[in-house]
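residues and backbone:
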Amino acid sequence: MTSTGYGTPYGSEPRHPGWPARLGPVTVPGGVVRVRPVRLRDGTEWSRIRVRDREYLRPWEPTQEQPWEERNAPWMWPSQWSALRRLARRGQCLPFAITVDGRFAGQITVGNIIRASLRSAWVGYWVASTLAGSGVATAAVALVTDHAFGAARLHRLEATVRPENLASVRVLTKVGYRREGLLRRYLDVEGDWRDHLCFAITTEESGDGLVTRLVDSGRAMWS
């Protein structure tokens, strides 16, 4: 027999703990990083970055029928934003924008939130190619993980990444996620079923916080 891990919901818990929220700032080589809820007016910059960074982002994202330029056009953002906001209000998702020096620079989302006895979710993120290797993604993951284990009252986060995505593997390991295993033919990416590494962290492993860990290691500074 296996356990589902769901159990009985906690009746006294707010419907969407930890949402909305603004996180940061933290300073890294790429600039001053903040995390905030996605906005409707993010659409223009969201589209500009993603269309420009097609070859940088596409190898890591799920296969879709629409051409890249079409599904990342400015007019596609309002429906995405509305769906994310609806999930956030239901307590199923924490959809954030990453900003650097006040400008939209990417997204980070805590999704598939399950509460009760499991208190688990996944985290996914992307940042503009111009900020690769600058510490921005690392800071954003640290900020959101600390928030998930604090105000959002989660116990475990996981992230899946293709083994070839060395930059993302480095982000996760730098902030303290541990590798749990290899998921064979896990997700359809670029027209084929791709293996993914599974990384995870629990609140017990986060210690005094992942941002504090980055600051203590010299990779970031409190702003």
